[in-house]
Design brief:
The chain has 164 residues and is of the alpha/beta class. It has 3 helices and 10 strands, in the order ααβαβββββββββ. It is 23% helix and 21% strand. The strands form 2 sheets. A 5-stranded mixed beta sheet has the order 1-4-6-8-10. A 5-stranded mixed beta sheet has the order 2-3-5-7-9, with no helix packed on it.
């Protein structure tokens, strides 16, 4: 009886380990596809031609993923002439360390959900058309070292610990 139980236990452990080693892109992919849906103009055809379900999100232009968890760590779409708004779903990219959307034509408010990006070290949203107030929770991001929002119409006070 013990001889039958042991192989079954080993098989279950193997299957569980295999399942954990497969990257789960569901959350990150959903966030990025929502972002893509909020892009109203992509004149260089970068996002519309590259961000497809035929390729892994880690191979999408402007996206880098961590080697261990295969989660999005960098989103750099700077200087790509993109137009659109920033959806709140970007705040669910929980492994994001660097967000650079500078020198585009993004408009609208900064999503409150950006305050959930606990691993974020760099946020560069400069040279866009963003307006409204800077969400207060952004100043609670303890790892945030670089915060660039120049040439937008944002209002609010910049936290003293962010002034260099």
């Amino acid at each position: 009886m013990g001889f039958i139980f042991l192989p079954m236990l080993l098989m279950q452990c193997f299957m569980a380990a295999l399942a954990m080693s497969q990257p789960n892109f569901t959350t990150d992919q959903f966030a990025l596809l929502e972002f893509k849906a909020h892009i109203t103009s992509d004149p260089l055809n970068i996002i519309s031609s590259n961000w497809t379900s035929a390729t892994s999100i880690c191979n999408w232009v402007g996206v880098s993923c961590g080697a261990l968890h295969h989660r999005v760590t960098t989103l750099d779409l700077s200087n790509m002439s993109l137009t659109g708004s920033l959806p709140p779903q970007l705040g669910s990219l929980s492994f994001l360390v660097s967000l650079n959307l500078s020198r585009n034509n993004f408009h609208g408010h900064l999503p409150l959900e950006f305050g959930k990006l606990q691993r974020l070290r760099l946020m560069d949203l400069s040279h866009n058309f963003l307006y409204g107030s800077i969400p207060g929770d952004i100043w609670l991001l303890s790892k945030l070292e670089i915060f660039k929002v120049r040439d937008n119409q944002l209002t609010g006070t910049i936290s003293r610990n962010m002034v260099t």
